Amino acid sequence: MAGGRERNNERVRAEVPVITASGAKGVTRDMSPTGVYFTVDQKFRVGETIHFSMDFDAPPHMGGVFRMACVGTVVRVENAHGKSSVGVAITHSTLERRGRSGKLEAAAAG
After folding, report:
1. Neighbour count for residue 27 (Cβ, 10 Å)
2. Alpha-carbon distance 58 to 48, whole Å?
3. Class (C level, CATH) for 12-100
4. Cα–Cα distance measured from residue 79 to residue 33, given in angstroms and rounded to the nearest whole number
5. Sign (positive/negative) of CA torsion 105, 96, 38, 20?
6. Helices then strands, each counted (H, E), the chain
7. Where are the domains of the chain?
8. How deeply is 83 buried, as exposed, middle or buried, from its count of CB atoms within 10 A (0-12, 13-18, 19+)?
9. Buried b (16+ CB within 10 A) or exposed e, 53-81
10. Three-class SS of residue 92?
């Protein structure tokens, strides 16, 4: 249990670029389908709602990147050296594809 919440999904270690709605940039440490832990140059408080996005490389035959735009609740905060490491429970997300032209396109459903 972390922050009083039981985890239902296994976390995967991954370093993925993150950007918050205010423009602060960071990188993930690990993630699961329902949450993410990342470090960013911005302060947060437990219970705060956060809007952020993560970019994943698309398969080579597709080109571009997939952008996962997320809304979540901060469930853990560790502040050190002017940075915040935050655990976020994802409450809503959308996935879009940024094609070779740089234009965002809706991702095709499987």
Report:
1. 13
2. 31
3. mainly beta
4. 25
5. positive
6. 0, 8
7. 12-100
8. middle
9. bbeeebeeeeebbbbbbbebbbbbbeeee
10. strand
Contact 76, 3 (CB under 8 A): yes
Q: What is the pLDDT of residues 50-80, one digit of tens each?
A: 999 999 887 788 778 889 999 999 999 998 8
CA distance linking residue 50 with residue 18, whole number of Å: 12
The three-state secondary structure class of 74 is: strand
Q: pTM here?
A: 0.78
What is the distance between the alpha carbons of residues 27 and 17, in angstroms, rounded to a whole number?
5
